[in-house]
């Protein structure tokens, strides 16, 4: 029997979406932005010590090759010729740090994941050496010194892993975030692999000057990082190299974006003032600020959003980062015997319809925006004899929404113009109870795209638009609007504000949990930080006052 004829299609674009919990490869039609097929592989995390989070770089790479192969098989089953794939983009979990030997291709240590807390004491020591009146790190990078970013992870590896130290001394070591590792390996590895990153990923290392758009010598000296191990900085949309093996051998890799930047592009938030929130392992709210850096006065990050071509301008964003969103559901599934799969939490929460006064602050990795308190730890409070698993499930989902409310409030204060709706994406948005809760707590509509794969779509757009590929037009007149489902608030503002005020009380109780004695014996609690103490106390006064006025 003759093979079925291959479907006649125009050029296609593939996207590697390498996240914290899974890897996927997706194929899109640039003419319609339609998702044609995808394949997903779960990625294991390792927890060798309390607060440590690692992944195997070789397992990450293998998952990418497996996803590409399986997705291409699925295309074949649809009678679509894989030769139609004209470009590949790579989007990735940001900040996660890998060091490898450029001559053998072997990782010198596991990938240290963005959630990892082992560098807390390093952060405290480095912070003491910076003048409050002249914080050159924040001025140059837009970032606070935190366990979150790559520079302190790389500093730890250099200080504590002999294999890394020796490889640097011998001129064999190179560093990269996950995008750099994947692109280097896929373009040949030890046989001419391209060692590069894009501006969005570079801006998350705390070694990159977001004004000069270059690695910064002063920052590298401060963190003890040799500049020779850093990747070359490129735009987010250009041909970096060709795939050197596998079913897509010869296809150019021409797009690279950190996952949150990719979602911003995929949601078509390409104009100043447009914003989106992605709900994955963590939760990340980004607002496009155009070609200007906006410095936050309310605990947000200033970051590079994207640069869609070598000759194109760099666009910036304000970002609110929440460490634990979908991860709280995974924690419940793995550590409490109340659900067997992540999707079951929606049913439990729906049965409860309320947390019955139970509040869950999932500060497993400290608190990110707007507090930046690494000493915070998770708490469940407001428990009574009536509290059950349904209420705890509801409180866990509500916690994701309260954290988003905190960073939305900070963003509204920084931008001066409150958002009238919030565009959302990410795996957790499949949970309709969560989406309705989010609208209720924000008191504004939540808009969810019917095509949820906006992160992969964003990097596919960047790859397809690259010079030398040019199969995807980013001209606004050629971009069709994203079709959305709308969730309207269903509770009154007074009830929403009351629940939010109680949440703030719970957050206050989670802070300063892990104490490290300072050398001069001073109290290391949050109130030793005047800015943070003022922020927490003033927020509490305003919210509690609003509740009873």
TrEMBL record:
Organism superkingdom: Eukaryota
Class of the enzyme per the UniProt entry, highest EC level: transferase
UniProt xrefs under CDD domains: ASKHA_NBD_FGGY_GK1-3-like
First and last residue of the signal peptide: none
GO biological process, one term: glycerol-3-phosphate metabolic process
Main location: mitochondrion
Annotated EC: 2.7.1.30
InterPro entries the record matches: ATPase_NBD, Carb_kinase_FGGY, Carb_kinase_FGGY_CS, FGGY_C, FGGY_N, GK1-3_metazoan-type, Glycerol_kin
UniProt-listed PROSITE patterns: FGGY_KINASES_1, FGGY_KINASES_2
Keywords, alphabetical: ATP-binding, Glycerol metabolism, Kinase, Membrane, Mitochondrion, Mitochondrion outer membrane, Nucleotide-binding, Transferase, Transmembrane, Transmembrane helix
GO cellular component: mitochondrial outer membrane
Domain Carbohydrate kinase FGGY C-terminal: 276-466
Transmembrane regions: 526-546
Gene Ontology molecular function: ATP binding; glycerol kinase activity
One Pfam entry name: FGGY_C
Carbohydrate kinase FGGY N-terminal domain: residues covered: 13-266
Pathway: Polyol metabolism; glycerol degradation via glycerol kinase pathway; sn-glycerol 3-phosphate from glycerol: step 1/1
Compartments where located: Mitochondrion outer membrane
NCBIfam families recorded: glycerol_kin, PRK00047.1
Stated family: Belongs to the FGGY kinase family.
Identification of the protein by name: glycerol kinase
Source organism of the structure: Mus musculus
The gene coding this protein: Gykl1
